[in-house]
């Protein structure tokens, strides 16, 4: 059972990364036999991985036709953005209600991304850097201490990574240059510092502005595409 779960997790992580980095393109049909053969795994753990990817909205199952990689779309991103906005604003409201100012997990996430070396052209290295940047938001949610909230957020976090990769690596690489990355980290630091000083409403305003700017950039690139 342990080996089976570990194998399913490995397959899941591989397929998820392939989809996020567009090695598996939106709209592409997934051939279970072919993928199982390529990865040298049996079909049962592959099916389990597919089921999880369906729950995460990475793939779509069409009766009598098969499974397809879910297409990237503005409509889908707007839904993800709305859910993300509600959950993160709730997190700050909760911290305000409990007067929580010390967020060690968030501080650690910021410290870890600052340790990251300069990016190369490797697509998976860029993905890992994006994940490290986004960990600020993940740990902000985790700071609430609500396992269900963290689980719900976990469903959309990989989709957010997919759209961020599409935007900052594939569509507008200038948004992932040193200055752009520095600006993102500075915004994260500002949000954290406002929380630490008890200025929760200011932190929420900054967070909303931070997220809405990404939405604006997404819409701009969808219009171009």
What tags apply to this protein structure?
225 residues; globular; Arc Repressor Mutant, subunit A; 2 domains; mainly alpha; three-stranded antiparallel β-sheet; Four Helix Bundle (Hemerythrin (Met), subunit A); 3 strands
Task: Please tell me about this protein's structure.
The structure is a single chain. The chain is mostly helical. The protein has two domains: 2-69, Orthogonal Bundle (Arc Repressor Mutant, subunit A), CATH 1.10.10.10; 74-224, Four Helix Bundle (Hemerythrin (Met), subunit A), CATH 1.20.120. It is built from nine helices and three strands; from the N terminus they run αβααββαααααα. It has helices at 2-20, 32-39, 43-55, 74-97, 104-115, 123-142, 147-171, 178-196, 200-224, and strands spanning 29-30, 59-62, 66-69. The protein has a three-stranded antiparallel β-sheet with strand order 1-3-2. A hairpin with a 3-residue loop joins strand 2 (59-62) and strand 3 (66-69). It is globular. The model has no long low-confidence stretch (mean pLDDT 93).
Order of helices and strands: HEHHEEHHHHHH
CATH superfamily of the largest domain: GntR ligand-binding domain-like
What structural class do the secondary elements suggest? mainly alpha
Radius of gyration: 19 Å
Estimate nothing, just give the exact number of structural domains: 2
Shape: globular
Count the helices. How many?
A: 9
């Amino acid at each position: 059972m342990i080996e089976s779960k570990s194998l399913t997790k490995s397959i899941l992580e591989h397929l998820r990364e392939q989809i996020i980095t567009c090695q598996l393109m939106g709209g592409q049909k997934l051939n279970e036999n072919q993928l199982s053969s390529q990865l040298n795994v049996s079909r049962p753990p592959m099916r389990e991985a597919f089921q999880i990817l369906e729950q995460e909205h990475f793939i779509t199952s069409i009766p009598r036709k098969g499974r397809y990689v879910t297409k990237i779309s503005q409509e889908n991103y707007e839904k993800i953005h709305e859910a993300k906005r509600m959950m993160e604003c709730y997190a700050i409201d909760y911290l305000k209600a409990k007067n929580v100012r010390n967020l060690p997990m968030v501080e650690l996430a910021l410290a870890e991304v600052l340790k990251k070396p300069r990016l190369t052209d490797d697509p998976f290295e860029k993905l890992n850097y994006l994940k490290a940047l986004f960990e600020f938001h993940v740990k902000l949610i985790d700071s609430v201490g609500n396992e269900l909230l963290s689980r719900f957020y976990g469903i959309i976090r990989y989709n957010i990574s997919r759209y961020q990769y599409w935007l900052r690596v594939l569509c507008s690489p200038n948004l992932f240059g040193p200055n752009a990355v520095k600006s993102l980290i500075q915004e994260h630091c500002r949000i954290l510092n406002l929380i630490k000083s008890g200025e929760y409403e200011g932190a929420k305003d900054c967070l909303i502005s931070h997220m809405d700017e990404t939405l604006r950039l997404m819409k701009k690139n969808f219009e171009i595409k």
